[in-house]
Amino acid sequence: MPKIIGGSLHEHREQTRLRLFSALSTLMSERGFDGITLADIAAAAGVGRTAVYNHFPDKEALLLGFITHETEQYAAGLQASLDDIDDPVEQLRAYVRAQASLTRVYHVAPGPELRSVLSRGAQQRVREHVGVVEQILRRILAAGIESGAFPEQDLDTTVPLVNACLSGRNLPDVDGPDRERAVGQTETFVLRAVGAPVPVAA
User: Fold this and answer.
1) pTM for the full model?
2) I need a surface site. Which of 10, 100, 105, 185 has the fewest CB within 10 A?
């Protein structure tokens, strides 16, 4: 019988999943998604290959689980950081900066964007979880409109446009003046796009 990780079967399953996600992330950064197998992932995670199938039927399901986990963790952390901010404009600034510093879950691997290797059904499931982050932005903008910080606007149009702008950004990877300037310009662009007041630089 395989050794149980943690104090219970539930904890064992969770720890195994996290090991698989960590191994997948590391291997993708080295070889790309198409260059690894479930056997590679199992070996890197230190679990038996058959144990992988107890959690995920195939490599796509594992990738989907990883993306879902990363998105949920990110959304929870983002919301927690916003809970201490009352001003919708400052919340929006924090949202933009969080998105700018986000580890690019879909671009951690060499080769094609990860979403492009998923089936249509899996892409839809990813889209549903990404919607969790969009709801955070929607709440920020709705609060800003209600307080008068932002003008009235159609959030069904604004929210996807703002997120498309942020997900399509091309910021310098290395921290420094160039990256900080690019993040600041992105922040200003988004604030102007939603009609928020932007201080005029001297």
Assistant:
1) 0.74
2) 10
pLDDT score of 123: 77
Please tell me whether residues 53 and 35 are part of one structural domain.
yes
Distance (Å) of CA 97 to CA 72, 91, 120, 187? 18, 10, 30, 7
CA distances to 33, 113, 143, 196 from 191, rounded to whole Å, are 36, 28, 14, 5
Do 20 and 77 share a structural domain? no
User: Chain-centre distance of CA 76, in angstroms?
Assistant: 11
Asked whether residue 75 falls in the same domain as residue 160, the answer is yes
- Helices 38-45 and 9-31: angle between axes, nearest 10 degrees: 120
The domain of 27 spans 10-57
- Report residue 65: phi and psi, to 5°: -60, -40
Angle between the 59-82 and 38-45 helix axes, to the nearest 10 degrees? 50
- For residue 132, being part of any structural domain is answered with yes
Residue 90 is which amino acid? E
Return phi, psi of residue 96, to 5°: -60, -45
Do 36 and 69 belong together in one domain? no
**Is the pLDDT assigned to residue 202 strictly greater than 60?**
no
CATH of the domain at 183: 1.10.357.10
